[in-house]
User: What shape does this take?
Amino acid sequence: MSYDRLLVHIGFAVFVFVCSYLLTFVMRQRFKIMDVPNQRSSHKVAVPRSGGVAIVLASTLAVILYLLLGTSSLLPQENLIHFAFAYGIVVVMSLVDDIKQIGVLGKLIAQIMAAALVVSAGFWVKTLDIPFMGTVNLGWFGIVLTVFWVVAVTNAFNFMDGLDALAGGQAVLTLLVFGIITFFNGSHFVFVISYCLMAACLGFLLHNLHPAKIFMGDTGSQFLGFTFALLGVIASQFDQAETTIMVMPILLFSFLWDTAFTLIRRKLAGDPITAHRTHLYQLLNRLGVGHRGVAGLYYAFAILQGGLALLTMELKGLMSLISIIILCVVFSIYSLLITRKARAAGLI
Assistant: This one.
C-alpha cells in the first residue's frame, strides 16, 4: 500500500471515529433510552442505553461513503438489498427491545429471519478446511451451519454486554486483529469494513469506560454480533483474501465460551431460561472484581486470541486445531476456578 493510500485510510478511520464519538454524545444528551437498574444490574443509577444507535449510524455512514466513492464491493447490487433488509430487521428489533422488552422467542425469530435473508443472497459457508481431512464441501448443511453461526454469535455478543467497556473493548480488539489479518491476506473490502467498524466502536467506547456514561444496548450488541458473524463468512468464502473461517471463532472465543459454558451449566442445574447474572464475567464481578478488572482480564484474553489468530493465518490448517485446544484448556481452568469460588460464595 502506498503512503498516500495509507493516509486516506487513516483519515477515513478518524472521520468515522469522530462521527461516532459525536453521535454517542448526542445520544447521551438528547435521545435517552434509559436503563433503569434492577436486581440483575451491575450499575446503581439509570444510564442511557442508546449508544448502539451511534455505532450503527456511524458504521452505516462509512459504508455508504465507501460505496459512493466508487470502490468495488463484494456485494452485487441486488444482494445489497438483502443485506439492508437483514440489518434493518436486527436493528429495528433491537431498538424496540431497548425501548420496551421483547420476548426471547420474538428476538430469536427476528434473528433467524435476518440470517435467512443473508443466506438467500448466496452468502453461506460452502466449504470448510478440516485438519487431516482437507477441504470439505458442506452442501446444504452449510446453510444450516451459517444460520446457526449468525444467530449464535449475535446472541453471544448480546449476552456478554453486561459490564462497562467489556463488549466495546472486545469489539475494538477483535476488529483490529481481523483487519490486520485480512489486510495482509490481500483483502480490501473486509479490511475497510473492519477498520471503519473499529473506529465507530472506539468512538463509543470512550463514553462507555467505567463509570459508563452510556451503554450500547441491544441495538449495539446485536448489530456487532451479527456483523462479526457475517464478516467471518464473507472473508472466508467470498473475499479475495480467503481468510480461514476459523479466525473469527478464535478471536471471539472468550465470548463464545462464556455463553456456551453458562447455558450448559444452567441447563444441567435445571435453572429456568430467564435473565440472570451467572455468566462467568458476571460471577467474577460479583466475587469482588471491579468493572475495570473484569474488562482488563477479557482484554488479555482477546490479546491471546489475537496472537493465536495471527499464527493461524501464517500456519493455517493444523494451527486452527491447536489454537482451539489451547483456548479450551485456558478457559476450562478459568471456568473451574470461577465456578468453585462462586459456589463457595453461594452465588450459584
Notes: Residues 19 and 58 are 6 Å apart (CA to CA).
